[in-house]
Amino acid sequence: MSESLRGGVIGAGVFGAYHARQYARLPGVDLAAVFDPHPERAAALAMPLGGRAFATLEDFLEAVDVVTIASPAAFHAEQALAAVKAGKSVYIEKPIGVDVAKVEAVAQEAARRNLTVACGHQERVLFQVMGLFDIPAQPLRLEAVRHGPPSDRSLDVSVVLDLMIHDLDLALALSKAAPVTAEGEGAVVRSDSWDTARSEVTFDDGFTALFDVSRVAQARRRTMKLVYPSGELEIDFLTREFRNTTGFALNADFADTPAAKDTLGASIEAFLAAVRGEAPRPIVTATEAIAALDLALAVEQGLTAGA
Angle 145-237-154 (CA atoms, 0-180°, nearest 5)? Predict the structure, then answer.
């Protein structure tokens, strides 16, 4: 596939704009189209980047080779299924959806057509360049904190599907064990669903993980502590620094790598490489993203109202 791929973005909001700019700048792909229920928003995003705005999903899909879905999460599965049925590989912003069965239908249809489905859990890029996935041991415990101030974005889903799902995906990537229980407390503060949540998840090999998230915090905080038999690793995702007493060699200069400086770009490049057959898989597959969604929904079910 030597010709440039025609990239299309569904959703002309903040995240859609991030993706559209990536398609406009990356080699081997052009921004061809943007679809949004509000045509004026689609045009305002697409035209300055050399793309076209489309008023219907059907016309949009005819104009592209690959699709990014950056619409509200409730529409992800429906739009992704339409894309793969039209023969297009898809990159879906996290969460991959809100219903496991519907997203599994997308994955099955894509597999039947030999199409790529990727999901935007970009923190995995940082773990890759740090060398965390190369550690020859599994952690005993994980503690993740992800707090942010109030925002009008992503209020269509709970803070579990909005923020915690990043760290749920990382926990699943680090452990080969399966989660068995999820219990915790949450609070509804400014939306129709959980705005804060604190959940402890246990895995069938004894691995435990504590997740603490808030989208109504006074300040941003994004940290993770990993406890190994040989020591501990403490990561600050905001400063891009870590403290390592495990004895395992990690890349202390990971923040200076191109991938760490642009995790979205690295994730999309990996998706496009998989589409072209230049890589065996994207950074996060549909199967992995579905596992994170499944765990997130279990965490939601295990929450009780706290003080």
Answer: 65
Tokens 């760290």, located at residue? 167
Continuous segment of H or E residues that includes residue 260: helix 258-261
Largest CA distance in the chain: 58
**pLDDT tens-place string over residues 164-180:** 999 999 999 999 899 99
- What stretches of 20-138 adopt beta strand conformation (E)? 29-35, 52-54, 66-69, 89-92, 117-119
Q: What are phi and psi of 179, to 5 degrees?
A: -70, 140
What is the rounded distance in angstroms from the CA atom of residue 231 to the CA atom of residue 224? 14
Classify 95 as helix, strand or coil.
coil
Q: What is the band of 2 on the pLDDT scale with cuts at 50, 70, 90?
A: low
Using the Cα atoms of residue 248, residue 255, residue 266 and residue 156 in order, give the sign of their dihedral: positive
Residue 134 CB neighbour total at 10 angstroms: 12
Q: Which of 173, 94, 114, 98 is nearest to 138 (CA)?
A: 173
Backbone phi, psi, residue 295, to 5°: -70, -40
Hunting for tokens 């007493």 — which residue is that? 245
Cβ atoms of residues 263 and 140 within 8 Å: no
Secondary structure letter of residue 93 according to DSSP? P
What is the model's pTM?
Answer: 0.95
Dist. CA 219–CA 215, nearest whole Å? 10
pLDDT digits (tens, 9 = 90+) for 195-206: 999 999 999 999
154: left (phi over 0), alpha (psi -120 to 50) or beta: left
